[in-house]
Amino acid sequence: MGFEKLEIGSGIYTISDLSEILKVDKSKVRYWFNTYVRDILPSITGFKYVFEENKGLFVNFKSLLQLYVFIELKNKGHNKKDIIAMYKFIARKFKTNYPFASKQVLSFGSELLIDSKQGLVSHRLQLNFDSLLQDYIKKIDFDISGNALRFYPLGMNHSIVVDPEIQFGSPTIKGTRIDAKTIVECFESGDSKDLIAHAYNLKLNQINDAIEFLKAA
What are the tens digits of pLDDT across the range 3-28? Predict the structure, then answer.
């Protein structure tokens, strides 16, 4: 079995990190983390997605992206059996350990044909999967090989970016190494937005994006 390992530039995310970035209740993330990332997905691809460091469990940037797709599909009302069937189908079709984190797969979404005779997934899931991916792909920067480089949780028209090569993948202000949490902590301590912007050489819209992102439910 292949396995994920700690590598510089791959991102390091705990359950708490995933909950904060994806804006999903920690208990729900923990359930998906323990049940699927640690158990079911490895049984499909033969790849271990969780790595351990200093007695803590972590996943990388690509696993973060995959978890986003899983949770969004579940929120659209699809059952876990159909989602796993879609995952298995794509993993085998494209021979990838990360079916939901590849531009090749995401771009091919509308052409994914499932043999309904095999009873893999519903036609409705296929349609919603394509719809989700069209919105999702707009939040990701890819390199020329189709590898995901950066994720913009609020969309690319906002300045918050999750880049696994910067600050270990913590949400930062685009074009800087400033952690979004740092900005919000200054604001919550009583500093005005103008003062923070001046101190960190940022624009007000960047300050507002950081606050919006960290304050989001």
Answer: 666 666 688 999 999 999 999 999 98
Q: CA 18 to CA 14: how far, in whole Å?
A: 6
pLDDT-based confidence at residue 85 (cuts at 50, 70, 90) = confident
DSSP state of 211: H
pTM of the predicted structure, to 2 decimals: 0.85
Q: Given CA atoms 50, 53, 55, 59 in this order, what sign does their dihedral have?
A: negative
d(CA 137, CA 102): 10
Indicate the pairing of strand 47-48 with strand 2-3: parallel
CB atoms within 10 A of CB 113: 8
Q: Please name the residues in contact with 70: beta carbons below 8 A apart, sequence gap of 6 or more.
A: 32, 36, 83, 87, 100
Q: Quick one: pLDDT band at residue 119, thresholds 50, 70, 90?
A: very low
